[in-house]
Design brief:
Blueprint (H helix, E strand, L loop, with lengths): L1 H6 L3 H14 L4 H13 L3 H14 L6 H11 L3 H13 L5 H13 L3 H15 L5 H10 L3 H14 L4 H12 L6 H16 L5 H12 L3 H15 L4 H12 L3 H12 L8 H17 L6 H18 L6 H14 L3 H12 L6 H17 L5 H12 L4 H16 L3 H9 L7 H17 L7 H14 L3 H14 L6 H15 L2 H14 L6 H14 L4 H14 L6 H12 L5
Helix pairs in contact: 2-3, 3-4, 4-5, 5-6, 7-8, 8-9, 9-10, 10-12, 11-13, 12-13, 13-14, 14-15, 14-16, 15-16, 15-17, 16-17, 17-18, 18-19, 19-20, 19-21, 20-21, 21-22, 21-23, 22-23, 23-24, 23-25, 24-25, 26-27, 27-28, 28-29, 29-30, 30-31, 31-32
């Protein structure tokens, strides 16, 4: 009942009950705290002070209760007595860990950071230097003394290098909000001094590299990583890891730098083959992530794949490289026969894991569709689906099988197959399944006319089979026959995708503009907006218009899958500092 009164703000009734409860159980801190709070809310500081003094007398070794008395002095306007009581609390502190933590927390809760730090320092006099190093550093950062905090962290790492991960976990909370960078600046300065002084140690360079990565200053991180790699003779391990981080951040140029460094070490490095494979992967992403890559770029990429394939061969460790190589040949260089040869050769190898074999089968089926075979792919998809029924390869096989049925014009079968995939554990598969399902539902059976969707599926297949001009002709015929059909926005989007692949960017933009202006309430409006914004940013170098389009995604399509990425890009173009 006392708690009920307390929570509802009836502090007089609460205090009447808590007085009785406290008399029965003076050691109960909940009764004490709630009674004290009730007195304060009633502005009865006299009763509050009496209670606190009584509680202190019953708990003489609990210095943190003196902080309650100090606060009462402060609320009465007696700042001198308040500070005197703070000092008394520090003097009477019993240097046991729980008592040190309770006093420091009491100070910290009322933002008396300096006193909290003193409590921890006093505790360290008895328990040893470094016992409360992280607590002291945390408070020092909070008070804005970044130089002091950095110095403390250097001391921590000096006597306990194994605490590096704890240091990183502490810092990451603050670096995220360190927009102006004073903490990062102070930390970098302290680390550079230590790196210069401690030529034999690696804990400071490790933290410095980590800091550069947090700042996304990959050039500086790579330079430090190379220096440490040479000094410790690590064979490139650190650069391989850093290359992976660059890839995750879509910094393909620097990822390539990392892997090239390791490859240049030659086969004497145990990381040579993995670096060789990742160099090809990073180079591919660097080229294909751009709208304006040329056939010459693709041929250079083919050479990288060819050299890596000859060196590594068709093995388990190179399986993903071979699959990507086949994809390049089939879908970018329009050489599906070479892709087929690569994949069939890989599938003949006896020591390929079942999962990689499944991936190869999926890619081979895709390649066979380009070659015009619409039946063998169904068998391959079925094999993978059967072997990995409740796993991602099986779900991917089921989706591609549905897409194959759609290409063949068997829309009912395709729709039945994608139904179960809309709840897939893979967001990518679920989204692809949903898109195909919506395409069929929205455009099949309207007035019993199947022709528009049949036209569209034919064009979709032609584009898939690297026949862009033929696909555009089919789509134009579709628009000519059915200019007002609901499938028009799908047609415009497919045209935009084809024109992008052909490098005809103005044609692509005109189709996207029609979608988000004339079909603003349809399914593809947000897709068109985001793609147009991406092109304005990367192709037309028009950040102002790109920002406007990203903003439209945020304001007009706030449930879109593109919202998070649109917000990030909008903020970056606006000049916000992003971590």
């Amino acid at each position: 009942m006392a708690l009920e009164y307390f929570n509802s703000g009836e502090f007089q009734k609460a205090s009447d009950l808590y007085e009785k409860l406290y008399e029965k159980e003076p050691g109960n801190e909940v009764f004490y705290k709630n009674l004290l709070t009730s007195y304060k809310n009633l502005e009865d500081l006299k009763s509050a002070e009496k209670l606190v003094r009584k509680h202190i007398s019953k708990n003489p070794k609990e210095a943190h209760f003196l902080v309650d008395l100090a606060i009462i002095h402060r609320e009465k306007g007696d700042e001198k007595s308040c500070k005197k009581t703070f000092e008394q609390a520090l003097k009477e502190l019993v240097p046991l860990p729980d008592k040190v933590n309770r006093l420091a927390s009491a100070f910290s809760n009322i933002r008396e950071t300096d006193y909290a730090i003193q409590a921890y320092l006093q505790g360290e006099k008895y328990s040893g230097t470094g016992t409360y190093a992280f607590e002291i550093t945390d408070l020092t950062i909070r008070k804005g003394d970044y130089t002091g905090a950095s110095t403390k962290l250097m001391e921590v790492l000096a006597y306990d290098p194994s605490s590096l991960s704890r240091v990183q976990n502490l810092l990451v909370r603050y670096l995220e909000d360190d927009v102006d960078g004073p903490l990062q600046t102070a930390l970098k300065s302290a680390l550079l001094k230590e790196v210069q002084k401690n030529a034999s140690g690696n804990v400071y360079p490790n933290l410095l590299i980590w800091l550069f990565v947090q700042q996304k200053n990959f050039d500086a991180a790579i330079m430090q990583a190379k220096a440490l790699d040479k000094r410790l003779k690590e064979g490139g391990e650190r650069l391989v890891e850093l290359g992976g981080i660059c890839l995750e951040n879509e910094d393909y140029d620097r990822a390539v730098k990392c892997y090239e460094y390791v490859v240049e070490k030659g086969t004497s490095s145990s990381y040579y083959y993995s670096a060789r494979t990742m160099l090809v992967s990073a180079s591919r992403k660097k080229i294909t992530s751009s709208y304006k890559y040329t056939r010459e770029d693709l041929l250079k990429l083919r050479d990288l794949y060819s050299v890596a394939y000859l060196e590594v061969g068709a093995t388990e460790s190179s399986a993903s490289l071979v699959i990507d190589y086949a994809d390049l040949e089939a879908f970018y260089l329009n050489n599906p026969e070479k892709a087929r040869e690569l994949l069939e050769n890989m599938l003949e190898q006896p020591r390929i894991s079942p999962r990689m074999r499944a991936e190869a089968k999926l890619k081979l089926a895709d390649v066979l569709i380009i070659l015009g075979d619409m039946w063998e792919p169904a068998l391959l998809y079925g094999q993978v689906d059967k072997e990995f029924k409740n796993d991602l390869p099986g779900q991917e096989a089921k989706f591609r099988s549905a897409r194959l049925a759609y290409f063949r014009g068997d829309f009912e079968l395709a729709q039945n197959q994608v139904k179960v995939l809309k709840a897939s554990t893979s967001k990518l598969i679920a989204n692809d399944a949903l898109s195909l399902s919506l395409l069929i539902i929205d455009n099949l059976g309207r007035d019993s006319v199947r022709a528009p969707l049949q036209f569209f599926a034919k064009a979709d297949l032609e584009a898939y089979q690297n026949n862009p001009q033929k696909a555009l002709e089919t789509l134009n015929d579709l628009l000519g026959f059915y200019p007002t059909h609901p499938i028009v926005d799908e047609v415009l989007y497919k045209q935009a995708q084809i024109y992008i692949k052909l490098g005809e960017f103005n044609e692509a933009i005109s189709r996207l503009e029609r979608i988000y202006t004339e079909y603003a309430v349809d399914n593809l409006a947000d897709d068109a907006l985001f793609l147009a914004a991406d092109m304005q940013e990367k192709v037309f170098q028009n950040p102002t218009l790109a920002m406007q389009l990203y903003e439209k995604v945020l304001t007009e399509h706030n449930s879109s899958l593109f919202v998070a990425e649109a917000r990030k890009r909008y903020r970056r173009l606006r000049g916000d500092k992003l971590n």
